[in-house]
């Protein structure tokens, strides 16, 4: 079944709020006439679909983030392993806020998947991270490890800074969850530091 124009206010650990579909979506049953289309699948999969999703994350009555996306699919594991995943096949936008509800950064991608059992979130296709200090990070993939609170990837990535203060490229990278301490592999380019403490530090 498909839900439209869904909004949810939830208080959970940051970024785990993506996996909320099980609380407000009703399950979908496979049409028996379409079973032949899925004969190569291991088992029939229950999928909940919601359109025009808006999820607001809060902690201690303070808004910490907002997720929006044109479509969210909750894949329920029917094998008994409780491997429920949340998929955003048409893209997603996540905006993060500080304690004063001021935007700190945002992540946009054309595709995203939250793997419930692993605590791993993947962003793919035209991934763009925008910081309020003007820095923009671009790649074709980005992973967030919720357990260790770090971002990483395995493909080329670029870092562009405001006012042409720098442009860096790397073959892969790891970073803390605020993009303040970035470690790039085979990093090249230039960076002109300023007195702005918001600018991240880099290592190779």
How would you describe this protein?
The chain is mainly β and 204 residues long. It has no helices and 16 strands. It has strands spanning 2-10, 46-59, 62-76, 85-88, 92-97, 103-109, 111-115, 120-131, 136-145, 150-153, 157-160, 166-170, 172-176, 181-185, 188-191, 201-203. A six-stranded antiparallel beta barrel has the order 3-4-7-8-6-5. A hairpin with a 4-residue loop joins β8 (120-131) and β9. Mean pLDDT is 76; it is low at 9-44.
Which key phrases capture this entry?
204 residues; mainly beta; six-stranded antiparallel beta barrel; 16 strands
Write a brief structural summary.
This protein has no helices and 16 strands. With 204 residues, it is an all-beta fold. The model is unreliable at 9-44 (pLDDT under 50).
Please state the structural category. mainly beta
Number of strands: 16
**Count of helical segments?**
0
Bin the strand percentage.
Answer: over 45%
If strands are numbered along the chain, what order do they take across the biggest sheet?
A: 3-4-7-8-6-5
Largest sheet, in brief, is:
6 strands, antiparallel, barrel
Q: What is the CA-atom radius of gyration, in angstroms?
A: 19 Å
Distance between the termini: 49 Å
What is the element string, with H for helices and E for strands?
A: EEEEEEEEEEEEEEEE
**Shape, please?**
globular
């Amino acid at each position: 079944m498909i839900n439209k124009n869904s909004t949810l206010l939830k208080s959970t650990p940051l970024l785990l709020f993506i996996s909320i579909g099980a609380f407000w979506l009703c399950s979908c049953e496979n049409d028996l006439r379409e079973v032949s289309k899925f004969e190569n699948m291991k088992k029939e999969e229950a999928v909940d679909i919601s359109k025009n999703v808006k999820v607001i994350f809060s902690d201690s009555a303070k808004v910490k983030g907002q997720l929006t996306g044109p479509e969210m699919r909750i894949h329920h594991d029917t094998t008994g392993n409780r491997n429920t995943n949340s998929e955003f096949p048409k893209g997603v936008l996540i905006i993060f806020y500080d304690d004063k509800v001021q935007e700190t950064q945002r992540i946009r991608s054309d595709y995203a998947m939250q793997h419930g059992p692993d605590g791993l979130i993947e962003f793919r296709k035209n991934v763009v991270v925008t910081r309020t200090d003007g820095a923009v990070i671009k790649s074709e993939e980005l992973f967030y490890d919720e357990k260790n609170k770090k971002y990483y990837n395995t493909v080329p990535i670029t870092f562009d800074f405001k006012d042409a203060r720098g442009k860096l490229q790397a073959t892969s990278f790891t970073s803390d969850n605020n993009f303040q301490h970035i470690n790039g592999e085979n990093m090249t380019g230039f960076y002109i530091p300023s007195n702005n403490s918001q600018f991240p530090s880099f290592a190779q």
